[in-house]
Amino acid sequence: MKILYAASEATPFIATGGLADVAGSLPRAIRGKQHACRVVIPLYSAIKPELRSKMKFVTSFYVPLSWRNQYCGVFEATYNGIKYYFLDNEYYFKREGNIYGFYDDAERFAFFSKAILEMLQYIDFEPDVLHCNDWQTAMAPVYLNLFYRNVEKYKQLKTVFTIHNIQYQGKYGMELASDVLGLPSYANSTMLYDGCLNMMKAAIEMSDAVNTVSPTYAKEITDPWYSHGLDRMLRANQHKLYGILNGIDTVAYNPETDPSLFENYTAATIEKKQVNKIELQKLMGLTQDENVFLIGIVTRFVAHKGIDLIQYIFKEMMKRELQVVALGSGEYMFENFFAEMQTAYPGKAAVRIGFIPDLARKIYSGADAFLMPSKSEPCGLAQMVAARYGTLPIVRETGGLKDSIQDMGEDLEGNGFTFKTYNAHDMLGAIDRCSGLYYNRELWPKAVQKTMESDFTWGRSANEYIGMYRHICGEEKEN
Asked: Are 242 and 288 members of one domain?
């Protein structure tokens, strides 16, 4: 099969979150299953010069978007065996700062979505499946069905739409439908949802398959508690809703070779992990003690990540024989909270505000446990990375956290510690159980080794995606 994977970001070129990791890893795993897969993203000015220098110009054309006729250049580059296309329009993508958050994001990504379809007329690749991701590419299935479906080249093209985070839906006023998106009035019913224009809703309705990044999250988002209003639309389209758990790039995240670590190690040499712990304590100003239980936190400091649970229970945590190191940024109230705790508990609590990938990896490798008490979590990658580095995840049973981390219990059959209800003391109970195991010097190394052996490779996920592609294309699933 041939798949074109469309996303607004992809590693190693541009990344702000988990979508980029998936877009940089899943296509490679699909290609490893002997299927052709290429990726298309915008050509942002923020892409590093050393990566841009490897791109070559392919072609250019103009994209009709309402009353506009906008230039689009196509560049390509090959990375790790995958061909990437980059769509160039300096007006839309030559912006300073972040790649999102501009007043005209609706127009920018509507252009990108339509340019993807226009590009298919000019490149040497005819995909069977166009795989779109999140609201930034949500208009592609809509434009395909409204404007391109009767063109011979597009008649058999199937579409998949992946929801990485249902909170961000591409919601705007309906006045954008004609003037910005260039849609005819008869398409208004497709775009309209709860009184506004909703791109994600339209993509769910127009795509041949819809999936989320974990089986549990696929069930959760049909419930109003998790859906941010889209539960009615998802229940109506449940027949085409899939849940496929993400994997991680086990080459990029490998404690045996990771250059960010103070000391590399494997499941067979976990004693070397202690070097990373001591050096992390030194770096962060914590009391240097290899025998104290160290909890790591790497996250966005926002409410749905469960920071309020940590805030509520933190003083009780500090009464225990443990240390906490946190890295992240987000809401001022949470940033301020961690800063205050660092001052109140010198040597026991430490925080760095910001997004520092090198330090994140040092925390993954140096901590004993990794706390991730999310209120909701479509998939989550941090808990898998932590497990890969032998740092036992402590997670709430929601979304991909529930699907990827199973509680160890007394028999050590799982790969972390879990709690079910969104309750601070339930979280503290899980922390205490993990701490109790840590201080059992005979069992702890076995638990670390077992956790490091968790299979979070993309192979299993790629097989499920290929099965979904085959199903919508009317092919039999491979044995």
From this structure: no
Q: What do you get for the CA distance between the two ends of the chain, in Å? A: 16
Q: What is the DSSP string of 164-178?
A: S-TT---EE-TTHHH
pLDDT tens-place string over residues 31-56 = 999 999 999 999 999 999 999 999 99
Task: Give yes or no: residues 25 and 73 share one domain.
Answer: yes
Token pair for residue 30?
């699909």
pLDDT value at residue 410: 82
The whole-angstrom separation of Cα 4 and Cα 74 is 15
- Euclidean distance between CA atoms 210 and 160, whole angstroms: 6
- Domain contains 253: no
**What is the pTM (predicted TM-score) of this model?**
0.92
Contacts of 320 (CB under 8 A, 6+ apart): 293, 431, 432, 435
Asked if residue 426 and residue 300 are part of one domain, the reply reads yes
Q: Which residue, 386, 368, 367, is CA-closest to 441?
A: 368
111 and 234 inside one domain: yes
Q: Find the Cα–Cα–Cα–Cα dihedral 191, 42, 218, 418, rounded to 10°.
A: -140
Asked if the bond preceding 127 is cis, omega within 30° of 0, the reply is no
Residue 257 lies in a domain: no
183-to-108, 113, 141, 175, 191 alpha-carbon distances in Å: 15, 13, 13, 11, 9
In the predicted model, is pLDDT for residue 479 greater than 50? no
Q: In this predicted structure, what is the pLDDT of residue 335? A: 96
Question: Does residue 74 share a domain with residue 23?
Answer: yes
Same domain, 200 and 273: no
Q: Model confidence over 418-468: pLDDT tens digits?
A: 999 999 999 999 999 999 999 999 999 999 999 999 999 999 999 999 999
Q: Using alpha carbons, select from 366, 359, 369 the residue that is nearest to residue 295.
A: 369
Residue 396 falls within a domain, yes or no?
Answer: yes
Q: Which helix (H) or strand (E) holds 162?
A: strand 158-163
- Of the chain, the percentage scoring pLDDT greater than 70 comes to 99
Q: 172, 200 in Cβ contact below 8 A?
A: no
Extract the tokens encoding 13: 């070129």
Q: For residues 228 and 338, state if they share a domain.
A: no
Task: Judge contact between 84 and 41, C-beta under 8 A.
Answer: yes
Co-location of 289 and 424 in the same domain = yes
Q: Which of 68, 231, 132, 125 is nearest to 143 (CA)?
A: 132
CATH code for the domain in which residue 132 is found: 3.40.50.2000
In a domain, 400, yes or no: yes
Structural domain of residue 146, as residue ranges? Answer: 2-247+459-472
Indicate whether 476 pLDDT > 80.
no
Question: Which tens digit of pLDDT belongs to each residue from 211-245?
Answer: 999 999 999 999 999 999 999 999 999 999 999 99
In angstroms, the CA 194 to CA 192 distance is 7
User: What's the number of domains the chain is made of?
Assistant: 2
